[in-house]
Write a structure and sequence with these properties.
five-stranded parallel sheet
């Protein structure tokens, strides 16, 4: 049988030799054509320490690790090798592995987690059904059951309480978090260095994203490494996916990068933690905040409805200075970060590249995401309504509640027979809505979803005009994570339309944006100018932006995405210019210990002139529109200068403008008769205008050459 994602690998790990042997013999009875997992006696590991499992998993190739299922024996609760913390570290260190835990009467986690990730030692046959699900495409890559999120939360909460694992500085993550992130980044960097293919690129991006989440905006060097790999791999995947057929949204990507780097600011102050019972429900927030912030009486907490924009966050930070708001605002940020529920999404698609990109996109927007590459997995996740042959219908199994579904209209599942097409086939040209409703009727959990996003090779927007609230469409290929068709609804909390209630805050924004909820207050001892323009952080920030943006530019260049390369180059020039900004604060008085102030007046003037000239060149070469605006401004300026001259021929502005335009275009203008009696500065301005004209001619030629040479 051809499996959806390639050859499958199975491992068994137990600290006890007898249990390992028994499990190995039992599972080998089923390994064969129907369960074609790669499994030998050597793949059943007896653990003397947890590093034995690390070594075995690290020895696998990236492709094999991406398709690995590992059964871990946790039947002995007093075992020092596999305790709760080691389980948490394993899950976070290897996010691509499908973990199954063998326990005595498992009780932890949600219902979905117990069904998919836990097996009772008295019902070992259930593990065989999990092997079948793995065969037909179930993967834990994008945390569909929320297991990884739950383990991360438990680990981080224990680290915050532990004195041994807690670092001295508030700007560094805990030692365990740094160890996990370091291993994730090492593996991601190895993939990046090996000219990764599409699947490996998604793999590296996922590892970098998990490292970013475990660090929580702390540990500057690791955080920057995570962002570099994350953005580089996302861009590389999108370029190889769309080729040159789609314009990728570079500007949005780089602006979000800048916001995320700001999170790593080591001068942002102390993080605040407030207990739940200290809430105040009588505080009235001013302006637009009053419409978004509500007090939840049932849960006794503040909730923020919708997505928190940067301006709203800044407004709250300013309010926190007031004692009236301080405690309430601090609590709001803490609750927003730790208790906002996640949504669940599903990707229905049979093509591996689309499955990976769609799944990663939804996961990066904050959704626990199921991937559905086969008909059997579609039945398992969405339920299946069928006729039992006696006139009645049954639904089996119950399925999972899904909030957002990203589904291909033209499904061609490898395990589907011709008779199965009646359940999910949709004809775009004829009876489109009949096919859409028929698919939802046979797979009931589709109807309970908040929104369905259709993927098709042709545009169907005209068919969805009347039902935009529940249906969207995306045309293949699309621009990936930051594509407009997905960015707008998912980033803006589109999934709030049907499940908005007082006890249920909205689904989170982009998973990386959650770190904006980390509340911080500048230390009172910090001077405001030191905080805003501190030279150390200023240079670190723009050095990092230059490095990462340059990597993005190279990726676009290597994939012949010339427009995207040019846009990245524009941002790169701007960051290089901003990097010079602290050294030209020539006329600003400051007692800051950080700001670098030039000593001599000449160096001040040179610095300002060089900065202004570089800014002008950068803006001029960005677009033809900017050149037109600048040239028009010069012509108007020179026209006013000529008009105020003592020459009688230029008393009228339009006469002066005509003379200025002809002179600028280097066309011999009719010289005024009184030119011989003109003052010296008038002749100098005529000459200076000619120099400015040649200067802009050079810019225009450079701009044309840049455009032509890149096409």
């Amino acid at each position: 049988m051809i499996t959806p994602f390639g050859r499958l690998t199975l491992f068994i790990a137990s600290p006890h030799e007898p249990i390992r042997k028994s499990l190995s013999k039992y599972i080998q009875l089923f390994i064969g054509p129907k369960i074609p997992h790669r499994f030998t006696e050597e793949d059943a590991i007896t653990l003397t320490c947890i590093e034995d499992l690390y070594d075995r998993l690290d020895s696998l190739k990236h492709q094999d690790l991406f398709n690995t299922l590992c059964l871990l024996d946790c039947t002995n609760t007093n075992d020092s090798i596999i305790n709760d913390k080691e389980k948490q570290i394993l899950i976070l260190r290897y996010p691509e592995v499908y973990w199954v835990f063998l326990e005595n009467n498992p009780k932890g986690g949600s219902k979905e987690q117990r069904e998919i990730h836990y097996v009772d030692v008295g019902a070992l046959h259930e593990f065989i059904s999990l092997l079948h699900r793995h065969l037909y495409g179930f993967r834990a890559w994008f945390d569909p059951t929320g297991l990884r999120q739950g383990m991360r939360r438990k680990l981080l909460s224990k680290e915050d309480e532990s004195k041994e694992d807690k670092p001295v500085s508030n700007h560094s993550a805990s030692f365990t978090s740094q160890a996990i992130a370091g291993m994730l980044l090492k593996r991601a960097q190895n993939i990046k260095n090996g000219s990764p293919a599409f699947q490996e690129g998604i793999h590296a991006a996922l590892l970098a994203l998990e490292a970013w989440l475990i660090l929580r905006g702390k540990t500057l060097a690791m955080g920057l490494d995570a962002l570099d790999i994350l953005y580089s791999m996302e861009a590389a995947v999108e370029c190889s996916f769309v080729g040159a057929s789609t314009n990728l949204p570079v500007d949005r990507r780089i602006k979000e990068l800048e916001s995320l780097i700001d999170i790593l600011n080591p001068y942002k102050g102390n993080e605040v933690s407030v207990k739940l019972e200290k809430l105040s429900q009588d505080v009235n927030f001013p302006n637009f905040l009053s419409k978004k912030i509500k007090y939840n009486c049932a849960r006794k907490c503040l909730i923020f409805i919708g997505v928190m924009e940067e301006a709203e966050r800044n407004e709250l930070v300013e309010l926190s200075v007031d004692e009236k708001y301080k405690q309430t605002v601090e609590t709001l940020f803490q609750r927003s970060q730790n208790n906002t529920p996640k949504g669940v999404a599903a990707v229905i698609e049979e093509e591996e590249t689309f499955i990976l990109l769609n799944g990663y996109t939804l996961y990066s927007y904050g959704y626990d995401t199921y991937v559905i590459p086969s008909l059997k997995e579609m039945k398992n996740i969405l339920g299946f309504k069928f006729n039992n042959g006696k006139g009645a219908t049954n639904i089996s199994p119950e399925g999972t509640k899904i909030d957002v579904i990203l589904e291909d209209l033209d499904l061609r599942f490898g395990d589907a027979k011709e008779a199965d097409l009646q359940y999910f086939e949709i004809d775009i040209k004829n009876n489109f809505w009949t096919g859409v409703n028929n698919r939802a009727d046979h797979f009931p959990k589709i109807n309970s979803s908040i929104i369905r996003i259709f993927l098709s090779s042709v545009s169907i927007s005209s068919l969805l005009k009347e039902r935009k609230k529940s249906f969207l469409s995306v045309v293949k290929p699309y621009g990936g994570v930051f594509d407009n068709d997905l960015w707008k609804p998912l980033k803006a909390g589109y999934a709030k339309n049907k499940r908005e209630s007082e006890t249920s805050p909205q689904f989170p924004p982009h998973v990386r944006d959650r770190l904006f909820f980390n509340f911080s207050i500048p230390e009172e001892t910090n001077n405001s100018k030191d905080y805003n323009s501190g030279s150390p952080w200023f240079r670190q920030k723009y050095n990092a932006l230059i490095e990462i943006t340059n990597d993005l530019r190279k990726i676009y260049q290597n994939h012949d995405q010339f427009d995207e390369e040019e846009e990245a180059l524009i941002h790169l020039r701007n960051y290089q210019l901003r990097l010079r900004k602290p050294s030209i604060r020539a006329f600003e008085e400051s007692d800051s210990n950080f700001a670098v102030i030039p000593k001599s007046s000449l160096s001040k003037i040179n610095g300002c002139f060089g900065y202004c000239l570089t800014w002008y060149l950068n803006k001029s070469i960005e677009s033809f529109r900017n050149q037109f605006v600048f040239i028009s401004a010069w012509l108007i300026l020179f026209s006013f200068i000529y008009q105020i001259s003592p020459l009688p021929e230029f008393n009228d502005f339009w006469e002066a403008f005509l003379f200025s335009s002809l002179n600028f275009l280097q066309l011999p203008p009719p010289l005024p008769k009184s030119i011989e009696h003109s003052v010296g500065w008038f002749r100098f301005m005529v000459l200076f205008e000619g120099i400015v004209a040649f200067f802009h001619l050079g810019i225009f030629i450079s701009y044309l050459y840049q455009k032509i040479s890149r096409k």
